[in-house]
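RECORD CONTENTS
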Amino acid sequence: GYGALQKIVNKDGSPHDRAVFAKTIDLYLVGTFNVLRLASAEIAKLDPKESGERGAVVMTSSIAGYEGQMGQAAYGAAKAGVIGLTISSARDLSSVGIRVNSIAPGTMATPIMKGVGEAMLARFTANIPFPKRLGEPDEFAALAQHLLENTYLNGEVIRIDGAQRFTYR
């Protein structure tokens, strides 16, 4: 991942760095689209099942795509783009029997996140209603597996966040 917190206009009056914005969009949105288009081209070559399905794709968005915090204009825009890409690509790829869904995780207990220190982890956990903890990678994986196996789920973005909602800060 890549992260650079910047406001649209910084305290010193300077504008958000355009190159940082572009790099963030390129990584999280264009990169996701690139993998989707290349993987889908290969999946489309497979023989369809009796149902007509050839396969399924699960992309990763973020709850920041719905409610990004201050300093997250680039990241929030990129993840909102993935949210928008989900239904469009599900409809596009229906003609070749490919389903597309996305997961929008909240704060997850990844190795990088665990490295931020106890004080920051407590701060992140404070606004998670229940369960009062970070999400576990195994929970994300279980949801991804379900999205791949449930053949009627298509074009959906599912939050996995313990009912977490970001404040504006």
In short: Helices lie at 18-43, 64-67, 73-93, 111-114, 118-126, 137-149. The first strand starts at residue 55 and ends at 60. Strands lie at 55-60, 98-105, 157-160. The first helix runs from residue 18 to 43.
